[in-house]
Design brief:
By secondary structure, the chain is an all-alpha fold. The protein has helices spanning about 25-30, 40-50, 60-75, 80-95, 105-120, 125-145, 150-155, 160-170, 175-190, 195-205, 215-220, 225-235, 245-255, 270-275, 285-295, 300-315, 330-340, 345, 350-355, 365-370; strands at about 15-20, 20, 55, 55-60. The strands form 2 sheets. Strands 1-2 form a two-stranded antiparallel ribbon. Strands 3-4 form a two-stranded antiparallel ribbon.
Length: about 375
């Protein structure tokens, strides 16, 4: 294989931008990803996440960096290849929580970009910023889409971490499902690593891989916990959430299986709860399982779990908030569960914003009094 960074100096990086201005530092950071020094590699990857993927925002330099990141991920001489590949996926979609559990709605995304172009008003700062941001995001997404043949090749890599991250990356491109789903099927024919299998199953679900339904059912009935969880996630995404699927999701909402999964930064409890919340009608025992799961969270993990539990129990915000005694049993348990979350959950404004949106008390003591707790 040739030099993975060939052509790097042919890009006018100084003319491109990132979160801190000119992107002229990006070539040095990309080169550092090949360093034999682990600390140097980690620092460079962290800097790239900070500047061309700043809190989920992508900039002009993001799309330009994608081919080089994919080349590094494909080069056997790169000391650690999952990092560049994972950054590639992040540049394509931002934070994956914005797209789960349904997957990337690329049609709506492209329509919104077209709408912004049609209404472009350079004197409207907010509109101009929204257009620039959307254009940069789509450019990065399409740059990764153009590199999907490379990503599919990495599904057969010798490194299990690379295979898993390749499956994770491939799952965000529904426009390329016809080429990706057979590659995922071929991977599942031979794969033995539970973590890789789990990523491939979830990706197949996100890509509407109905041809793989028999394979998903096999893994749902298997003994290995992580692929079983992933099969349930995928089957629910495909509209096949029967009793065994819901039972698996409910169990995982309370006590998720162990495993290093890229989706939602590895929060399998949350992914299970979000999937249950997306069902047309969740059975009461599944709702109870999500509330059990919420009661076992603390800190930042509580925020999205609380949001999922509120959707399941309240459906829509109730304003003004009725007397506690007038709530349904599930709603009363939801309020009590939130009220009993530890202080390291209540100290964050994120949780308070969620509670405010649903009309619940945002002062911990007031919430406890409303729930009838001491």
């Amino acid at each position: 294989m040739g030099e993975p960074l060939a052509g790097l100096d042919g890009v006018d990086w100084a003319a491109l931008g990132h979160a801190y201005g000119s992107a002229e530092d990006v070539p040095g950071l990309l080169r550092a990803l090949s360093s034999p020094d682990e600390e140097e590699r980690d620092a460079a990857l962290g800097d790239l996440f900070t500047n061309i993927f700043h809190q989920g925002t992508r900039y002009g330099a993001a799309a330009a960096a994608v081919p080089f990141l994919l080349a590094l991920a494909s080069c056997p001489g790169t000391p650690e290849r999952t990092g560049p590949l994972y950054l590639t996926a992040a540049l394509a979609i931002g934070y994956d929580e914005a797209h789960l559990p349904s997957g990337v709605d690329i049609t709506a995304w492209r329509k919104e970009a077209a709408r912004l172009r049609e209404t472009d008003d350079r004197d409207d700062f907010d509109l101009a910023w929204a257009l620039r941001s959307t254009e940069a995001e789509l450019a990065a997404y399409d740059a990764v889409r153009a590199g999907l043949p490379t990503v599919r090749t990495l599904l057969g890599d010798d490194d299990a971490g690379v295979r898993a991250t390749a499956a994770y990356t491939a799952g965000w491109f529904p426009e390329e499902a016809a080429g990706t789903l057979p590659a995922l099927g071929a991977l599942l024919d031979v794969e033995q690593d539970p973590n890789v299998i789990a990523h491939a199953l979830v990706a197949a679900g996100l890509l509407d891989g109905r041809a793989l339904l028999p394979r998903l059912r096999e893994h749902l009935a298997a003994a290995e916990p992580l692929p079983r969880w992933a099969a349930a996630i995928a089957l629910a995404r495909l509209g096949a959430a029967d009793a065994p699927v819901i039972a698996e999701l409910a169990a995982s909402s309370t006590s998720p299986p162990e495993g290093e999964v890229a989706f939602l930064e590895g929060d399998l409890r949350l992914y299970s709860a979000l999937t249950i919340a997306a069902l047309d009608e969740a059975p009461p025992d599944a709702v109870e399982a999500v509330l059990d799961g919420l009661s076992r969270t603390s800190g930042e993990a509580s925020f999205p779990m609380a949001g999922a539990a509120l959707r399941l129990t309240f459906g829509t915000p109730v304003v003004p908030l009725p007397r506690f005694a007038d709530l349904t049993p599930a709603q009363r348990r939801m309020v009590r569960t939130v009220a009993e979350l530890p202080s390291d959950s209540w100290q964050w404004g994120n949780l308070l914003e969620i509670l405010r949106a649903w009309g619940l008390p945002t002062v911990h003591a007031e919430c406890r009094r409303y729930a009838g707790l001491a």
